[in-house]
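Minutes, project check-in
Item: structure for the 65-residue chain
Input as provided by the requester:
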Amino acid sequence: MRRIPEAMTRGCSRAASSPCGLFGAHSLYHWSHADVVAQDELLSHKAPFLNVTMFTVLVTLSLAI
């Protein structure tokens, strides 16, 4: 039972040292573009949760835990 969690955490150090998820969010995720969110009704509804600030907070908390 111990090997699976060990294998899952093997990539954590690489994820923490690679900030492309945080700084490259504009090129990776279409919900980070304000004009796309304004045109899409579903993204407008999800805008309080799907934004760069919330994404940064959640990624930071996930890496900290």
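Outcome recorded: The CA atoms of residues 16 and 64 lie 9 Å apart.
No further action items on this chain.
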